[in-house]
Structure formats: C-alpha cells, structure tokens
C-alpha cells in the first residue's frame, strides 16, 4: 500500500511540474477591457466652397463648388472630457450666411458650441481638455467659452501664433482663442489619457502644427478624425493637397504617414469636412463607442 501511495505522489508531482512548465511556455494572456469612451459629433456650421479649385493644385476642380460640413467633437473618457475643434465663428449664429469678399466661400452656422453641449448634459466647466486639429478660423470659433480647459497645442503651432506670419492672414482669427491660457505644449504625437485609446497624431503641413485624433473605441474599434489632412473623399482618393496649405511638401509627407498609420491600425477614417462622412455619424445625444 505504501508503495502505491508513493507512486501516486510521484506521479502527481510530475504532473504538477509538467503543468507548470506548459503554463510557462504558453502563458494565458488576459485581455484588458478598453475603457468606456464615447465620441459625440456636433454641427459647427457649413462651408460652401464656391471655388473648389482652392482645394487642389493646378485646375483639378476648376469651375466646381461643394458644400462642406464643419464638425466638432466631444470625447468622454473615464479620466476626462476632450473637446476637439469648435466650429465656425459664433457671430454667424442667427445671421444670414456670409460670403467672403473674393466670393470663394459662403459660411453659416445655426447653433453655438455651448448650446449643443447641453444636449449631452455638459457646460464649459465639464470640458477638461481642448485641442484643435489646427487653428484656422473655422475650427476655433467657440474656443473662448473654455478658458479653464487645458489646451493641447503643438510647439510649431505655438511658434506660428507668435510670429509675424499670422498677422493679417484671413485664415486665422487669434481673438477667437485668446482666452485659452492653460497650454500644454506638444512636440509630436501625444497619448491624451495615457492608455492608448485617445492619441493626438502630429501631421503638419495644412498648418504649421496640424494634427489628427486617433481613437480606439471599445465597440467601433480604431477610428480616426482627420482634421484637415483631407477636406472631402476625392481629396483622399487622389492624395490632393490644397494650394492654400502652409507647407505643400510637408503636407504630402504627412498624407503618406497618415495613410501608413491608418493601414497599420485598420482604422475607420472620418473626414471632418466631408458632408457624407459627417452625416453618417450619429448626432447627440447619440454617440459612437
């Protein structure tokens, strides 16, 4: 009987060693649940591009016009709330559409940033962080409502703001973001909440510090908000760079890097100015997650 018991104990010890060895060779990897993130899309106005050819080199879109959306977004993360862009100037709300003196653009806006945030129960105090894809006037229109938010801005964009190049340039309205003082200066990509789910990607060229926003949503998966690396689908299909970009060669390099990253992540891209893309997104109080 003793021999039988000893044999059982030896076999059990061998079995435990084999199991431990197998576990070491093939460790069980537990999936970490993604944080609950919500992406809300809002209407920051409409841009009628009366001279669409401005969005290309040469005569690609000569004689064409196109209606563009002007979206802004809120990303609600367990660690904070990020406002991405703020739309066209709010002086347009309640007024007739405005056409630029050269006739190139007609712009309009129906509702303010704060009024729309109310639809999801937020006010200015609930926005912890603000970031613009870039500081063209059609993205900074409602910025001054959020003076206490931390502003994430690229060093190159900050340098441009403080240069003579911005003076008198009709694409910029520095007064629209003059109340934002709490700046965090970035030098390239930035993981906003430190977990890889909300990441600013630095793709300069459209402006000196242009950036896009990558989201890893729990259900929708990898998602990219384009900023103005493109303005509409045909731009992306042909890799076309607007003639008014800050730096054309830099824009071309950023487009290449952007597409490589999108392919690597298998991300769905939402072109912010493309009306079809914007219309396909759920509107508040509905959201993507």
UniProtKB/TrEMBL annotation:
Residues 69-273 form the Metallo-beta-lactamase domain. SUPFAM superfamilies: Metallo-hydrolase/oxidoreductase. It holds the Pfam family Lactamase_B. Keywords: Hydrolase, Metal-binding, Zinc. Transmembrane segments: none annotated. The keyword Zinc applies. Coiled coil: none annotated. The keyword Transit peptide does not apply. Its cofactor is Zn(2+). CDD domains: AHL_lactonase_MBL-fold. SMART domains: Lactamase_B (SM00849). Belongs to the metallo-beta-lactamase superfamily. This is N-acyl homoserine lactonase family protein.
């Amino acid at each position: 009987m003793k021999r039988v018991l000893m044999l059982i104990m030896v076999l059990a010890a061998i079995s435990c060693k084999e199991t431990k060895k197998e576990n070491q060779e093939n460790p069980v990897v537990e999936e970490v649940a993604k944080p609950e993130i919500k992406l809300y899309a809002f209407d920051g106005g409409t841009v009628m591009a009366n001279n669409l050819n401005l969005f290309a080199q040469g005569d690609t879109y000569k004689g064409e016009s196109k209606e563009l959306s002007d979206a802004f977004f809120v990303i609600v993360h367990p660690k904070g709330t990020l406002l991405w862009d703020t739309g066209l100037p709010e002086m347009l709300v309640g007024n007739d559409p405005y056409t630029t003196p050269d006739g190139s653009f007609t712009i309009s806006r129906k509702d303010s940033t704060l009024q729309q945030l109310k639809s999801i129960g937020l006010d200015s105090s609930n926005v912890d962080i603000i970031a613009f894809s870039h500081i063209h006037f059609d993205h900074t229109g409602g910025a001054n409502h959020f003076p206490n938010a931390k502003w994430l801005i690229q060093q190159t964009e900050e340098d441009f703001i403080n240069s003579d190049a911005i003076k008198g340039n009709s694409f910029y309205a520095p007064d629209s973001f003059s109340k934002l003082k709490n700046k965090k200066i970035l030098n390239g990509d930035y993981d906003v909440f430190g977990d890889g789910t909300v990441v600013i990607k630095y793709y300069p060229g459209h402006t000196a510090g242009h950036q896009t926003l990558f989201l890893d949503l729990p259900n929708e998966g990898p998602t990219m908000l384009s900023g103005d690396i493109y303005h509409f689908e045909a731009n992306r299909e042909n890799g076309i760079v607007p003639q008014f970009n800050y730096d054309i060669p830099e824009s071309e390099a950023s487009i290449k890097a952007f597409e490589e990253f999108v392919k690597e992540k298998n991300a769905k891209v939402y072109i912010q100015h493309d009306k079809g893309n914007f219309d396909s997104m759920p509107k508040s109080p509905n959201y993507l997650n």
